[in-house]
């Protein structure tokens, strides 16, 4: 079986991505209060730090999803074994959780293709190499793609005899505000065929004390992750942020139903961003939001699926009902 890798983030595509990055920063820093989207943090190092976050004992979304895959892997296998299929994972990272499913499918001697797509070139290359080393004698083919989600999807060959199942895990959809989430799943549906599946991870609304603990670890990994954004701004845009002048804090906002991470300026200061030719002023203890993780109810998930042209096939829960991997079928 083949283990291949494609980089779609070079040349024109990368230049376009850099321009999008700069626009997002300018727009976010012009808001009152300041607010930058979390996808800006995910360069190669940012992806590595986030992998550390997923391994923290108190970070329940990752732990819950691992439990779901371990407890429901046979049900997923039974659902897929009736036809040829392709696993497509958006934002695959190191593929750690997904390998629970991949290994079970391999043990059941199923022939299938796995397509991890991630914006981080390093993450995709490392994942493909690790899978080849471990599963080269299996019936699994792997095509890793370094690209934005929909660029990667558009590059996958169409095969009418193969059912696609797209994985969008880890409550990544919670990073989007509700209208953007709806736009995303609608666009995803348009990229797929009738009868294809999507599996989306949703972190469910729960005790705010649990949410606070999950996003404020005592070891400081979340703070390192958020402050890494300042390093990226310095490198990509010629900014002169000093990380020692900022601290990070995450908290649940009952108005937005989301856990929000903010970077706080510990003093009054002005930062110059060369690529934007702009000075940005921060007051003492002024905040800049860097993460948004919306917490869903089951009613909201049902509404989102049906409004966007899907039929819910199954909800897979962890034992505490803190998280759900919801499987939807594309309706055309």
Structure description:
The chain has helices at residues 12-30, 44-54, 60-80, 98-107, 121-135, 149-154, 178-190, 208-214, 221-237, 298-307; strands spanning 3-7, 34-35, 85-90, 112-118, 140-146, 163-168, 197-203, 246-253, 258-265, 269-273, 278-282, 287-294, 310-317, 323-330. With 332 residues, it is an alpha/beta fold. The chain folds into two domains: 32-56 and 221-294, no CATH class; 57-207 and 296-330, Rossmann fold, CATH 3.40.50.150. The strands form three sheets. It has an eight-stranded mixed sheet, with helices on both faces. Strands 2-12-9-8 form a four-stranded mixed sheet. Strands 10-11 form a two-stranded antiparallel sheet. The longest helix is centred in the first third of the chain and has 21 residues, at 60-80. The protein is globular.
Q: Can you lay out the helices and strands and say which pair or pack?
A:
Elements: E1 3-7, H1 12-30, E2 34-35, H2 44-54, H3 60-80, E3 85-90, H4 98-107, E4 112-118, H5 121-135, E5 140-146, H6 149-154, E6 163-168, H7 178-190, E7 197-203, H8 208-214, H9 221-237, E8 246-253, E9 258-265, E10 269-273, E11 278-282, E12 287-294, H10 298-307, E13 310-317, E14 323-330
Parallel strand pairs: 1-5, 2-12, 3-4, 3-6, 4-5, 6-7
Antiparallel strand pairs: 7-14, 8-9, 9-12, 10-11, 13-14
Helix pairs in contact: 2-9, 3-4
Features:
8-stranded mixed beta sheet, 10 helices, 2 domains, alpha/beta, single chain, 4-stranded mixed beta sheet, 39% helix, Rossmann fold, 332 residues
Short summary of the structure?
This protein is of the alpha/beta class and 332 residues long.
């Amino acid at each position: 079986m083949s283990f291949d890798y494609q980089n779609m983030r070079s040349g024109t595509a990368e230049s376009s991505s850099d321009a999008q990055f700069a626009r997002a920063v300018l727009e976010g820093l012009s808001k009152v209060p300041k607010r930058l989207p979390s996808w800006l943090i995910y360069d190669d190092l940012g992806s590595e730090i986030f992998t550390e976050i997923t391994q923290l004992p108190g970070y329940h979304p990752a732990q819950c999803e691992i439990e779901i895959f371990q407890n429901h892997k046979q049900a997923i296998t039974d659902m897929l074994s009736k036809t040829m299929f392709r696993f497509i994972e958006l934002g695959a990272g190191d593929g750690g959780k997904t390998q629970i499913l991949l290994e079970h499918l391999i043990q059941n001697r199923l022939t299938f293709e796995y397509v991890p797509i991630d914006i981080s070139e390093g993450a995709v290359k490392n994942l493909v190499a690790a899978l080849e080393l471990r599963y080269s004698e299996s019936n699994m083919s792997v095509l890793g793609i370094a690209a934005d989600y929909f660029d990667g999807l558009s590059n996958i060959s169409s095969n009418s005899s193969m059912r696609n199942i797209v994985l969008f895990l880890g409550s990544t959809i919670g990073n989007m505000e509700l209208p953007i989430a709806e736009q995303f799943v609608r666009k995803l549906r348009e990229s797929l065929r009738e009868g294809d599946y999507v599996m989306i991870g949703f972190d469910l609304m729960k005790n705010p004390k649990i949410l606070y603990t999950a996003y404020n670890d005592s070891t400081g990994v979340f703070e390192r992750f958020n402050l890494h954004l300042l390093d990226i701004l310095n490198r990509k845009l010629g900014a002169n942020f000093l990380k020692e002048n900022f601290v990070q804090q995450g908290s649940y906002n009952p108005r937005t139903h989301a856990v929000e991470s903010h970077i706080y300026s510990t003093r009054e200061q002005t930062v110059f961003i060369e690529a934007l030719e702009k000075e940005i002023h921060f007051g003492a203890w002024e905040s800049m939001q860097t993460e948004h993780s919306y917490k869903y109810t089951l009613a909201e998930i049902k509404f989102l699926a049906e409004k966007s042209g899907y039929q819910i096939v199954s909800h897979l829960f962890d034992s505490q009902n803190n998280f759900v991997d919801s499987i939807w079928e594309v309706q055309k």
